[in-house]
Amino acid sequence: MLPELTPKAQAPSADNPLSFSVAGVTVRWIWLIGLGSWAQLGQAITYSNFIEDGGWRTESSNLSCSMTHAIPYYGRAVFTRDAGEPLHFALRPLTPTLKSGQALLIAQPPVWKSTGSRRELGYVAVGQGVDEVGLGASRAEQMLTELLEGQEIQFTRKLKFGSEDPAQVAITTIGFRAAYRDYETCLASLLPVNFEQIQRTSVYFGSNQHEKLQPLEQQKLDNILAYIKADPQVKEFYIDGHTDAMGSEADNVKLAEKRAVLISNYLVKGGVPKEALWVRWHGERYPVASNDDRLGLAKNRRVTIRLETEATGKLQQPQDQTPTDGKDSTPGVANPMPVPTPPASAATSKAPVPTL
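Above: the chain's sequence. Below: its structure in token form.
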């Protein structure tokens, strides 16, 4: 419920807009430039910290950086940047507050600042989910720039219930710069990827190659190593070597083994415990694309890496491995227990990480 507001109205001016606070909710007159003249919209309820308290808080980790602005009687405004993801902004009310539709986004000088001009930044969608307003990186970066320049951000929209007068949700600059400094420090240590982005990774090879990695493919492994150093919940790694259909079946099994061993050794040298790795090689048996063209061949020359935590659990067989030769899988392939190294002629092999 909104507090009952019965202020005595006074005539506002362009240089000194009427503004007063009641129980943390600021009420002020708003003016709109239209068709070359000033038009009074009437009284509006503004949810704002105003001058009393900036209400900014920063939360930092190498997986997520966020700045939260507490807005009395409304909820929160949150800027969030997660590892591997773009910046996101959200308005999160305590209860649904604004009417669905389009809210006008405004940047303007705060009432205590005599310089600067009011700018309309366009309209943004208002919904009725957990995020009443959710904005992507471009708009969120624009808002951060305005706040750094000392501009207050306001969302203007009718209330969901009650008065037909416009309501404003304001993001103030009080305390913002200190929070932003902490936010920038967090960004410097933010990981380049998150778990969802690396849980299933494919590293690709050139035709008949198995001795070295291209820079882009090596970066994929470095991203995995950087992530697991920050997240001890990753417990097991499933490494599966594959080839295209060029060459004999026996040669392809050997080639897939060499590729899988190359990847597993790289991870071990980067700090992954050998006992956490399960290494298998399958030759050409599990293509993910047609072997009839260059693009398909390139997609099939790969080593897949699957990361598992206690939360995700163990999958019994990689999802991209469906036999195409009509043969049953070698016994034990779906079982994560180590088995002796099978002969090179086997269509599918599985073994612990070879000794370095």
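The longest strand covers residues 37-47.
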